[in-house]
Amino acid sequence: MEGMTEIQHDRLLIIDFGSQVTQLIARRLRELNVYCEIHPYQNVTDDFLSDFAPKAVIFSGGPDSVTREGSPRPPRTVYDLGVPILGICYGQQVMMQDLGGKVVAGEGTSEFGRAYVQPGDQRLDMLTGWFMDGTGREQVWMSHGDHVSEIAPGFEVFGTSPGAPFAITGDPARQFYAVQFHPEVHHTPNGATLYENFVRAAGFKGDWTMGAYREEAVQKIRDQVGDAKVICALSGGVDSSVAAALIHEAVGDQLTCVFVDHGLLRLNEAEEVVGMFRDHMNLHVIHAEEQDLFLGELDGVSDPETKRKIIGRLFIDVFQKYADGIEGARFLAQGTLYPDVIESVSFSGGPSVTIKSHHNVGGLPEKMGLTLVEPLRELFKDEVRALGHELGLPASFIGRHPFPGPGLAIRCPGEITRDKLEILRKADAVYIDQIRKHGLYDDIWQAFVAILPVRTVGVMGDGRTYDFACALRAVTSVDGMTADYYPFSHEFLGETATRIINEVKGINRVTYDVTSKPPGTIEWE
Question: PROSITE patterns under this entry (predicted)?
Answer without folding.
Answer: GATASE_TYPE_1 (PS51273), GMPS_ATP_PPASE (PS51553)
